Amino acid sequence: MNAPWLVFDIGTGSAKAALIHDNRILDAASAAYPTMRGADGAVEQDAEQWWEAVRNCCRDLSPRRLAGIALTGQMQDVVLLDESGHIIRPVILYSDTRARAEIEQIHTLINEAELTSLTGAQQNAGSLLAKLRWLWRHEQQSVTRAAHLLLGGADAIAARLCGSRASDSTTAATTGLWQLAAGKLLDASTLHRLELGWALPLLPRVVAGGAQVGVLGAVAAQQLDLPAGTPVHLGPGDAGAATIGAGCGEIGPAYAYVGSSGWVGFSAREIGDAAAGVMNLAHPRRGHFIQVVPMMTSAGNLSWLRDLFDSEDYAELIAQAAACQPGKLVFLPYLQGERAPFNDPLARGAFVGIAIDTGRPQMARAVLEGMIFAYRHTLSALSPQLPAHLTLIGGGTRDDNLNQLFADILGLPVHLPPAAENAGLQGALRAAQVAQGTAKDFAIAPASQTRILQPQTQHNQHYAQQYQHYLAAYQALKSLFVQMAE
Question: How many domains is the chain built from?
Answer without folding.
Answer: 2
